[in-house]
Amino acid sequence: MTAQAVTSERMSGCVPRRIVLAQVAGFCFGVQRAVEITEAARRQRAGRLTTLGPIIHNDQVISRMQAAGIEVAPDLEAIPDGTVVLSAHGVSPDVVAKAKSNGLDIVDVTCPFVTKVHRTAKQLYEQGYQLLLVGDPGHTEVKGVVGAVEAIGGTVTLVSTPEQVRALSLGKKVGLVCQTTQRGDNWAAIVGEVSRVATEVRAINTICNATDELQEAAVMLARQVQVAIVVGGRKSANTRRLRQLCADQGIPAYHIETPEEVEERWLDGVEVIGITAGASTPDWLIEDVARRINGGVLPSDWRLRHPDEKTLPPV
User: Fold this and answer.
1) How do residues 223-272 score in pLDDT, each as one tens digit?
2) C-alpha–C-alpha distance, residues 146 and 284, integer Å
3) Closest CA relative to residue 295, chosen from 20, 8, 22
4) How far apart are CA 44 and CA 66, in angstroms?
């Protein structure tokens, strides 16, 4: 995989700038699907339409939805009637049950890859494995997976680092799943740590292929440029990881939400600038950042590609 260079006419002093766009960037299949289903529901349904929390981690997309009449509520108690849209990151079964008992119509936009994590975690528990979930504490997806296992009477231990695994009391039969946006190297390190203790390890890699593609493309990009601009929501875990991956290649890497956050001092004397974006970042926002860097216009050969969505799990 190689990044795609796009020609820039923008000049910084006497230094011509070349913009390099990551081979894949922006909306993944699950996010695109969630946004499209939600917007279609607004067009097709009368009455109140409310998302349970932000359906994706991008404030700019959420603001556009609110302008179109799609409300956002922090919990079910704040939704008196109408239709509730469940997050692309998934929710626990008790949330679905409560929404139904409150008389709300439900639109579930959970990403199929997240549904696969729920299903796999429950299967491992039912097969008698001590269950570990590799993920970020407090993340919406993590809460949903934990809730899905607890709904069938199971328990799951959340771990984020190999060091946390060393502090656990592990049995001989351990099963692992992971949050879909985890870094592959962290997942591998944790599985390796578990394997030092357990004699029967079943590790199901539930990182989605879009995450792998975005991260691989970010690394390849960072190796070709002098500065990387990573576009995405502050709360987006996968966007933060893209910035870290770029920085790990030894270049300055900046995480921004909007074009206005780009600082000219970052680009002073820079000839080659890289742009990538997280899985919750829409095309129009990435293009606005490119215009900001490129004197108000898109480079002439701009071509934005999204992560591959050919290998989808069954819903």
Assistant:
1) 999 999 999 999 888 899 999 999 999 999 999 999 999 999 999 999 99
2) 35
3) 8
4) 16
Considering the domain boundaries, does residue 43 fall inside one? yes
Of 75, 110, 145, the one marking the end of a domain is 110
Q: How many structural domains comprise the chain?
A: 3
Domain identity same for 272 and 252:
yes
Q: What is the CATH number of the domain that holds 269?
A: 3.40.1010.20
d(CA 105, CA 120): 27
For residue 5, what is the enclosing H or E element? strand 4-6
C-beta atoms surrounding 312 within 10 Å? 15
Q: Angle formed by the axes of helices 140-150 and 93-101, to 10°?
A: 90
Contact, 77 vs 128, CB < 8 A?
no
b/e for 94-106, b at 16 or more Cβ within 10 A?
A: ebbeebeeeebbe
Q: H or E stretch including 176?
A: strand 173-178
Confirm whether 49 is domain-assigned. Answer: yes
CA 294 to chain centre: 27
Options 141, 193, 213, 257, the catalytic residue: 141
**277 with 260: CB under 8 angstroms?**
no
Determine the structural domain holding residue 132 and report its residue range.
113-203
Residue 67 domain flag: yes
Say if CB 141 and CB 133 are below 8 A apart: no
Query: Would you call 39 a catalytic residue per the annotation?
Result: no
Q: What is the pLDDT of residues 151-208, one digit of tens each?
A: 999 999 999 999 999 999 999 999 999 999 888 899 999 999 999 999 999 999 999 8
Quickly tell me which residue has 């913009």 as its tokens. Answer: 19
Cβ(253)–Cβ(239) below 8 Å: no
Q: What span, in angstroms and rounded, lies between the C-alpha atoms of 92 and 52?
A: 12
What is the C-alpha to C-alpha distance for residues 235 and 130, in angstroms, rounded to an integer? 30
Side chain identity at residue 267, one-letter code: L
Helix axes 140-150, 112-126, angle to 10 degrees: 40
